């Protein structure tokens, strides 16, 4: 099969082929059929698999099945050999400059154990309308998980309950185009989704079923702008009132701030080219802004003016995050690098890390009160890296098959949801915090680190107790890892 045939086969499910990326990994069904399946004996196709609605730890039967319900033994293969073949194949398809980066990089040790697999719900089908935009899942608790599915934002929970439409945007048309969700965000009582034509939908999560949502559109669209895609939205607390602010990053070179309580734009900042992502510091005073430019801009959140221009990437930047300690800032670019900065000194980065294989698209720091600090990196395909944000010298890697539609961590930091949009093996995976019992059996270990200035969390115990962002109280934090959820009374 030649490359053109592969592109046609993998494009048949794309609604917007104009924004399809030919470098996106082949879906695993196509890859297995053409590059792995042995001729003799004939291996059953992956299309033959009847997936259950949910895959749990018990469903794995040891190592017989993987997280996505694939029995590789029945296909006369092993998961490890398929993974190795896929890595060789996708590396050969890379742009030469990215292959060169892989040759020179120093891989981070894959030795940590921050999260463990809990469940894969296969009935949910997240949809990616643009290959570079992967912020399509958000969670405000394990009971409230939201994801984008073409013209709707669906709600489910960690147990895989049937999805219901929190936002049904099917009938909304802007400039002749249906509202298709390109990005979404949720915090506390607010959910917001952005679309291709600068439109957005806003709703309160405590509203009764059927309550109308608020529909809006960016007001200062430049008529000569070729694109008004909402590339990214994040929610943050306002410094002037009690309602959240939504920060919209757009392809028309602007970053806009929306007051969610009044549905009015309070700020609009113009940058040199498309703005792809932003993150606001916990105190609301600073903002990191990245886009179709190689610099990382550290700006005044009130004026939008950059006061630092950081040069660390060699290609466009699509992801950034600001940690809850107010100090650590991370960015990720199409050159496969993840750069971490210290906000107290912008002279040089703390560290430069590299993705496993594909382009890093989403970054998330764990929340304050969530336990040992981590930085989660979601690549466009197949890999999630959970990096030790204490030392940045080691990581835990989860690999699966399929394009990543997004990641979201619950406010207590105990569940990490991964949205997978593979054509055949899509769904929402939950990873749960691991290793708590070992830490709590040796409390002096944490005390030692705190005395040496190396706190396990983003704040010391006194700071956690006083920080209103911390979801869990002291007693609940002490009970983590005790296994009480498995206790039978």
Automatic annotation (TrEMBL):
<dbReference type="InterPro" id="IPR001680">
    <property type="entry name" value="WD40_rpt"/>
</dbReference>
<dbReference type="InterPro" id="IPR015943">
    <property type="entry name" value="WD40/YVTN_repeat-like_dom_sf"/>
</dbReference>
<protein>
    <submittedName>
        <fullName>WD40 repeat-like protein</fullName>
    </submittedName>
</protein>
<dbReference type="Pfam" id="PF00400">
    <property type="entry name" value="WD40"/>
</dbReference>
<feature type="repeat" description="WD">
    <location>
        <begin position="310"/>
        <end position="342"/>
    </location>
</feature>
<keyword id="KW-0853">WD repeat</keyword>
């Amino acid at each position: 099969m030649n490359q053109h045939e592969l592109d046609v086969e993998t494009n048949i499910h794309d609604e917007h082929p104009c924004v399809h990326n030919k470098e996106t990994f082949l879906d695993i069904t196509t890859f297995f059929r053409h590059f792995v399946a042995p001729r003799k004996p004939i291996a059953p196709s992956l299309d033959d698999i009847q997936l259950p609605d949910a895959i749990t730890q018990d469903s794995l039967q040891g190592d017989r099945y993987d997280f996505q319900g694939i029995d590789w033994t029945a296909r006369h293969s092993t998961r490890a050999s398929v993974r190795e073949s896929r890595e060789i194949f996708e590396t050969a398809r890379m742009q030469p400059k990215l292959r060169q980066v892989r040759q020179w990089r120093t891989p981070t040790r894959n030795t940590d154990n921050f999260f463990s697999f809990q469940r894969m719900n296969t009935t949910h089908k997240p949809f990616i309308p643009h290959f570079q935009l992967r912020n399509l899942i958000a969670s405000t608790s394990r009971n409230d998980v939201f994801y984008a599915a073409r013209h709707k934002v669906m709600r489910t929970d960690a147990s895989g309950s049937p999805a219901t439409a929190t936002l049904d945007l099917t009938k909304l048309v802007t400039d002749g185009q249906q509202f298709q969700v390109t990005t979404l965000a949720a915090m506390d009582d607010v959910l917001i989704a952005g679309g291709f034509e600068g439109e957005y939908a806003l709703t309160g999560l405590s509203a009764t079923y059927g309550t109308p949502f608020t529909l809006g559109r960016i007001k200062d669209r430049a008529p000569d702008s070729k694109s008004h895609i909402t590339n990214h939205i994040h929610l943050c607390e306002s410094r002037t009132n009690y309602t959240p602010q939504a920060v919209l990053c757009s392809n028309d070179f602007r970053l806009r701030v929306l007051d969610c309580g009044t549905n009015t734009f309070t700020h609009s900042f113009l940058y040199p080219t498309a703005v792809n992502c932003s993150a606001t510091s916990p105190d609301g005073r600073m903002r990191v802004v990245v886009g179709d430019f190689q610099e990382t801009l550290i700006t005044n959140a009130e004026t939008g003016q950059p006061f630092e221009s950081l040069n660390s990437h060699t290609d466009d930047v699509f992801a950034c995050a600001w940690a809850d300690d107010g100090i650590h800032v991370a960015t990720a670019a199409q050159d496969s690098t993840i750069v971490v900065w210290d906000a107290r000194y912008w002279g040089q980065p703390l560290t430069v890390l590299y993705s496993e294989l594909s382009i890093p698209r989403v970054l998330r720091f764990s929340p304050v009160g969530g336990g040992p600090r981590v930085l989660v990196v979601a690549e466009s395909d197949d890999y999630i890296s959970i990096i030790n944000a204490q030392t940045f010298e080691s990581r835990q890697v989860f690999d699966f098959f399929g394009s990543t539609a997004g990641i979201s961590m619950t406010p207590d930091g105990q569940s990490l949801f991964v949205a997978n949009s593979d054509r055949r093996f899509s769904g929402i995976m939950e990873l749960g915090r691991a290793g708590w019992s070992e830490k709590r059996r040796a409390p002096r270990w944490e005390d030692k680190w705190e005395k040496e200035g190396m706190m396990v969390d983003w704040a010391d115990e006194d700071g956690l107790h006083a920080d209103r962002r911390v979801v869990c109280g002291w007693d609940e934090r002490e009970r983590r890892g005790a296994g009480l959820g498995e206790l039978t009374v």
